[in-house]
Amino acid sequence: MKAAFSNRCLAQSLRRGRGLFVALLVFAQLPASVVRAADSPLPATATTPAALGDAQKAEAAERFERGLKLFDSNDNAGALAEFKRTYEIMPNPVVLFNIGLVYAAMRRPVDAVDALEPAIKSGALSPAQLERAQLTLADQKARVGKLMVTTTPPEGARIELDGIAVAKTPLGEPLRISEGSHLVSVVAEGFAPARKEILIAGNSEVTVHLDLVPTQGKRLANVNVRSRTVGAEVVLDGQVVGRTPLSNSISMIAGRHVVEVRRPGYTTARRELDLGEGATGEVNADLEVDTAALTKDGATLVVEASESPIEVRVDGGPQKAYVAPLRLPKGTHHLMITSPGFIPYEREITLVATRTNTLRVVLEPTLETRDQHKSRARFHQVAGWAGVIGGGLLAGGGAALGFTTAPDKDRADRQLADIQAKSANNEPPCDAGFAAEANQPLGMRGSYWCDKSFADAQSKVDSADTRMLIGYIGAGVGGAVAITGVVLLLTGDDPDKYEHRSAATGGKRTRIALTPGPGDVGYALSLAF
To answer: What CA–CA distance (Å, rounded) separates 392 from 388?
Structure first.
C-alpha cells in the first residue's frame, strides 16, 4: 500500500515511537563530498566545513531549522527551498537525505530518487537514516515510469511534458516520469504541434508516437496564458494543453483559435484569438468563483493561526480579514496569510469537498516584533517580580510594625485609663495636695500634674494608634502590590516565546519533522549547531 503522508500518521508514529532518526548532525563531523546522479538538479559543488565562515554556518543552521518548521506545517515547497539553500551553502548527505524526503512528500518521485540515491551511496547516514532512506527510495522507485517519445520527422522537435520542455528528439533513452496522467507535446518549427494525454503506471514503460504535420512553410504562433487560479485546465480549440500556472507559451498554427481556462467551482474564461505567423498573444484569465457551484464543488477551509488578527489572500486575490471559515472551490489553492508584525505565510493547499479542511499556521515574527515582544515580556516579568518582592517587603514591614506596636498600644491605653480613673476619684496625682513644681500655685499643683500625666498618656496612645495605622496601611498596600505582581507574572508572556529553546538540550533547538516513507510516517529530531 502506498504511503500516506499526514499529521494523523505522524501522531500514530510518535505514539509507537518508531522511525526515530537524527536529521542533522554537527556538519563538521560529516564528510563533505557526496556521490550525485548526473542529472540531479542539486548543486554539484562541495564545500568542506572548515572552509565555511561563521556567517555561512549560521545561515545554514537557520535555514535548516526554518526548513523543518515549514515541513512541520506542511509547507513542502518552502521547506524544499530552505533545504536546497542549506545544501548550496554546505553540501552534505544528511541535508540531501532530507531533501529526498521532502520530494517524496511532494509526490515527485523522480527528484526523490535523484536525491536519495547519492545520499545512500555516501556512507554518511546513520543506521536509522540509512534504513529510512532505503525504504523511501524503494517506495519512490515504484512510483516512477518510463516514457519513450518518437516522432515523424524525428529530428530536433521539442518534447514538452505537462507544458515544460524536457528534451528534444530523437531520445537516446526513455524519460523517467512520475506515475499518473500527463500531457505530452511535441513542437517543431514548420510543423503543427502534436499533443497526446497519457496515463502511466509505476515501473512501466509507455511509448508514444506523434506525427508532425507540415504547416506549408507557415511559422507557428504562440500564446501566453496567465491566471492566478491554480490547477485550472487550459483548453485550446477543445483540447486540453496544460494546467495553470503554465511556465511556457502554447504553440499553435497561425490563425483563429479559442482558448478556455476552466476549473470546477469557477466561471469559465473564454478568449478568441486571431494570431498571425510568429505572433505571440496574451490571455489573462483570473477566474471568478461561481457561488452557485459551491454547493456541489465547494469545500470549507478553517484557518487556525498562532496570531490574531489575520488576513487571508486566496490565489492572489484581494486580501481579506479572516473572521469565519472560508467556502472555496475544491482542489488546489495558493494561500497567503498575514498578520501585522509577522512574516507572511504562503503555501499551496488541496481542499477536499467531503470534509472540513483545517490549516494550522504558526506565524514567524519579524526581528522587530521579536525584539519588541521580548522587551515587553521582560518588563512585565521585572514589574511582576518587583511587585511581589516589594509588596511582600512592604506588607511584612507593615505587619511587623503593627505587631511590635501592639504591646505599646496596650500599655498606653491602660495608662490613660488609670489617669482617667484617678481623676474621677481625685486620687494622686490628681488631688489638690499632690506635690508639683514650686512655681505652681498650691491649689493648682494637683490639677497641673494630673493634666500633664493625662497629656503624656494620651500622646502615647496617639503615637501607638498612628504606628498601628501605618502598619495596617503598609500591610494592605504591600499585599495589594504583591497580588498585582503575582497577576503580572501569571498573565505575562514568555520573553523567549519565539526562540523555541529547550533547556533539556542545553539551549539547542529541538524540532519535529515528518519523514515520509513507505507504509507509515516517522519523526525526526534536529539539533541546531
So the answer is: 6
Q: Are 231 and 331 in contact (CB under 8 A)?
A: yes
Which strands make up the sheet holding 180-187, listed edge to edge?
Answer: 164-168, 158-161, 180-187, 194-200
Q: Is the peptide bond before 329 cis (omega within 30 degrees of 0)?
A: no
- What are the residues facing 270 on neighbouring strands? 260
SS3 at position 39: coil
**Spatial separation of the C-alpha atoms in residues 34 and 29, rounded to whole Å:** 14
Q: 499 Cβ partners below 8 Å, 6+ apart?
A: none
Q: Is residue 454 classed as helix, strand or coil in its secondary structure?
A: helix
Cβ distance 475 to 399 under 8 Å? yes
pLDDT of res. 109: 94
Return the ∠ at Cα 75 (arms to 233 and 106), rounded to 5°: 60
Q: Which amino acid is at 467?
A: R
Query: Is residue 25 packed enough to be buried (19+ CB in 10 Å), middle (13-18) or exposed (0-12)?
Result: middle
Between vectors from CA 57 to CA 24 and to CA 498, what angle results, nearest 5°?
75
At 15, the pLDDT band (50, 70, 90 cuts) reads: very low
C-alpha cell at 269: 474564461
Cell numbers found for residue 502: 529547550
Cell numbers standing for residue 30: 560529516
Percent of the chain with pLDDT over 90: 29
Length of the chain: 529
**246: phi then psi, degrees, rounded to nearest 5:** -90, 130
The Cβ of residue 516 has, within 10 Å, a number of other Cβ atoms equal to 30
User: Do 174 and 166 touch, CB atoms closer than 8 A?
Assistant: no
Half-sphere exposure of 287 (CA within 13 A, CB side): 28
| Strand pairing report for 175-178 and 520-527 | unpaired
Question: CA distances (Å), 441 to each of 29, 39, 427, 436, 444, in order?
Answer: 107, 126, 19, 9, 5
**Best CA proximity match to 62, nearest among 500, 400, 516:** 500
**Cα distance between residue 27 and residue 93, in whole Å:** 10
**Under a CB-based contact definition with an 8 Å cutoff, are residues 89 and 60 in contact?**
yes
For the record, the C-alpha cell of 214 comes out as 507540415
DSSP-derived 3-state class of residue 195: strand
- How far apart (Å, rounded) are the C-alpha atoms in residues 473 and 522? 62
pLDDT in tens, 420-462: 776 776 666 666 555 555 455 544 455 666 777 778 878 888 8
Axis-axis angle for helices 109-121, 127-141 (nearest 10): 150
> Which residues, at least 6 apart from 58, have a Cβ–Cβ distance to it below 8 Å?
none
pTM flag (> 0.85): no
Q: Name which of 388, 379, 447, 392 is nearest 419 in CA terms.
A: 447
